[in-house]
Amino acid sequence: MAHIDYPASYYAASANKAPARPRLQEAVETDVCIIGAGYTGLSTALSLLEQGYRVVVLEAAGVGFGASGRNGGQIVNSYSRDIDTIERTAGAHETALIGAMAFEGARIIRERIRQYDIDCDLKDGGIFAALSTKQMRHLEGQKALWERYGYQHLEMLDGQDIRSEVASDRYVGGMLDRQGGHIHPLNLALGEALAVEHLGGRIFEQSPAIKIERGQRPMVRTPEGQVSARFVVVAGNAYLGNLVPELAAKSMPCGTQVIATEPLAAEIASSLLPHDYCVEDCNYLLDYYRLSADRRLIYGGGVVYGARDPADVISIIRPKMLETFPQLREAKIEFAWTGNFLLTLSRLPQVGRLGDNIYYSQGCSGHGVTYTHLAGRIIAEAIKGQAERFDAFASLRHYPFPGGQRFGAAISALGALYYSLRDRLGF
Ligand SMILES: Cc1cc2nc3c(=O)[nH]c(=O)nc-3n(C[C@H](O)[C@H](O)[C@H](O)COP(=O)(O)OP(=O)(O)OC[C@H]3O[C@@H](n4cnc5c(N)ncnc54)[C@H](O)[C@@H]3O)c2cc1C
């Protein structure tokens, strides 16, 4: 079987040392078998191990190989679609529960970093940057909404304030979330994997689940081994392929691209982002950026529906970076990579059970660093028999993409083009 390496990203190049982990080459019995060692799988594993369950994690490549080891590193509160969408589409009880959970994922990340002493360059503070007065009004509405759900860490920034936080002329204002922030995403995943092993969990790498045999005691097969468990958790997200066909029909893998500059001189880095906050703009197809611990600008944006890898990431993302920061014209781009997130039609997570012993959570549609950490906790609660919070998410309705798998990517791209045109024209 071919060995799958990490893509050549800045994160892979600056990853903390990790132990060599075996392939699964035996028959194993456990309480819970988790498929996928991204944040969803690792967070579920940690929550279960903390409750005394025996856990085996199967990873097709290496820990954090997927979106969790390649993302923008931005800790963004709430969900890809905000609580007001949930208010419009879910029942009152479910909305209250999901609203109350909207800020828990970021707390879990900070708890884990502290509790397991994870070295992943955590920085506090994230800015939502508005490119138009319409987006500014949207942010004011978002602040009122989050405050209604008890969250009090937001601060509006006017045109002058944002200019003193972000050295760009693009923005009319913004909103600072003091409990947002950023991390080295792969090192967070690697640190969580070490914590899983410290608590007695077993992680097998280069061990793809190729079949789930459903039944009273499901069996997960890999090319060279098998795991028999009381419960299975499917956490393969955009990299799952067709392992569970029921899930594939209602979600679509999408690629997004990131570049990293060379390390910037200290005075240039601190002139761009003086408080080292991360930033994302309010466009439908948004740009997101932050400084790394060694003062590179890490800049992401762009979406490829259907997750084909673009030939030249730099030619797509560098112009976006220069539109925001023309002062970086001379900065060398040292890394460029792409990663897949999983889109659902509603842009809300797809959560549920297959039978009564296979659980899944996927499809956070672009903002998943915080939600996936929450997902791990609520899946573990459900396995333990306290499913109220899990069931609130499971109640969210999901629909197949119009046009099915074949035409869905083209139709979604057209939809995105429409929204990005509206953003560009300031509608
Ligand atoms: C480039 C990029 C930038 C992003 N930036 C941000 C951001 O700044 N902030 C934010 O909130 N969100 C961001 N996201 C989204 C966020 O990273 C994801 O929502 C989150 O990491 C998903 O975690 P996950 O564990 O569900 O999936 P993944 O991290 O993709 O993990 C799934 C894992 O399952 C494994 N797997 C799949 N199938 C199998 C199988 N059959 N057997 C065994 N293993 C399997 C894969 O190899 C993979 O390691 C970004 C995503 C991308 C791609």
Automatic annotation (TrEMBL):
One of its GO terms (cellular component) is cytoplasm. Pfam families: DAO. Coiled coil: none annotated. InterPro entries: FAD-dep_OxRdtase, FAD/NAD-bd_sf. One of its GO terms (molecular function) is oxidoreductase activity. Keywords: Oxidoreductase. Residues 31-381 form the FAD dependent oxidoreductase domain. It comes from the Bacteria. This is Gamma-glutamylputrescine oxidase. It comes from Stutzerimonas balearica DSM 6083.
